[in-house]
Design brief:
The structure is a homodimer.
Chain A lengths: L9 H20 L2 H8 L3 H8 L2 H24 L6 H18 L3 H11 L2 H30 L8 H17 L1 H4 L6 H23 L2
Helix pairs in contact in A: 1-2, 1-4, 1-6, 2-3, 4-7, 5-8, 5-10, 8-10
Chain A binds a DNA duplex through α3.
DNA sequence: AGATTGTTAGACAAATTTGTTTAATACTCT
DNA sequence: AGAGTATTAAACAAATTTGTCTAACAATCT
């Protein structure tokens, strides 16, 4: 039952290779032969462990949904910090999360677009948490607005503003990458965007 | 040489079908047989007119780049209106453009990601215009900033803020669509986003 | 040592996909 | 009427892709 030999067992290697291929190329453009090649195993092994391409993809997709849950759960936990500081923290957390997972948004959006069934899966996994968080934050916002220290905004709009600005930074990066001439400059460009996004949201909500 | 029969000649029908299929499913997931089926012609006709799938795709891609040039050129023409009003106009123009072409951003981003050669083509077609426009607008911004009627911002950041917010509205629409229960509510949701985006940018730049 | 599991290499089948070709027919123009 | 173009239907080839299967060997466990 247990794996033998080297720590990095073949089953995991296949999963890692599949993750790379699916996230880089999407479902359709990914070939199982290429996954096997990247994993350094024979093509037969892939089917031995994961039966089908679709099954292997679903494993990756579900794993990526789990990955996405982390920042959403972080959003949900109501820390005892001034809302305005917390929003700034959330932006930074989400932005840094994307820095670690730059291909994730495009992967999810792309696959959900070509297979709407996957949208349902996402909603089942994070829908409730998200709705609850929106409700909580909306209450907080309204309190701050009543105290005249915040501009009115719906939690949904605020969420979408932040996600739009953060996600699009990384979705559009392949297109704007050439503006930065080396890795260091690119990191600088990314950090500049982060500051700009925080500033934009702050101007949007602070009075 | 000329086409005969009905106005909607087969050659054009194939192009239309290809546009639909490529924009909806992307290059890899699109099958030439499906294009032929949608166009209502035999599979042989597709190759008769367009030789190969790749050739047909390139036609569509270049056509979509041309489509994208419209709002970029609109951005370039320096109308004699107060910058602050012009920015608002640009946001609305771009947003409404996306309403008419909701699949365009995802299509371009997706295909450029899987084929970086296409990024070069985009840059060749719109790079110069965009750089020039950025320079012009930056000068204007700086004047307004000097007069203390605008907050400082780089033209590039402003551009990216607007594009991020506008584009992500439509990229994420398939995921958030269920929030609206019918077509009317969906249009309402979209119009609300438009207002929110204008507001956000205004707070970001106006003093 | 024997049983079980992991692994390879390779052959193979079935389906799909792209692209070509041919023969026949219809339409359009001069 | 005849030439040329548009179009269909269908057969076909070649390549790719997914998936199965088998025979052999290696590693591990009991």
């Amino acid at each position: 039952m247990t794996q033998k030999k080297d720590a990095k067992n073949k089953k995991q290697q296949i999963l890692d290779a599949a993750e790379y291929e699916f996230l880089t190329n999407g479902y359709e453009a990914t070939k199982t032969t290429q996954i096997a090649k990247r994993a350094g195993v024979t093509h037969a092994m892939l089917h031995y462990y994961y039966q089908s391409k679709e099954n292997l993809f679903n494993k990756i997709f579900e794993d990526k949904i789990e990955t996405l849950k982390a920042p959403i759960d972080a959003l949900a936990q109501n820390k005892d910090i001034d809302l305005r500081d917390r929003i700034r923290e959330i932006i930074e957390l989400h932005f840094d999360f994307l820095k670690t997972h730059p291909d994730l948004p495009h992967f999810l959006i792309n696959e959900m677009r070509s297979n709407p069934q996957l949208i349902k899966i996402l909603r089942e996994k994070v829908g409730d948490t998200l709705r609850g968080t929106f409700a909580t934050i909306q209450t907080e916002i309204d309190e701050y607005v009543a105290k005249d220290i915040m501009k009115p905004i719906s939690a949904f709009d605020l969420f979408l503003d932040i996600v739009s600005l953060n996600v699009f930074t990384f979705i559009s990066l392949p297109i704007f990458r050439h503006i930065a001439y080396n890795e260091e400059k690119e990191q600088q460009l990314i950090e500049n965007r982060k500051k700009e996004i925080i500033q934009t949201i702050n101007y949007r909500i602070l009075k």
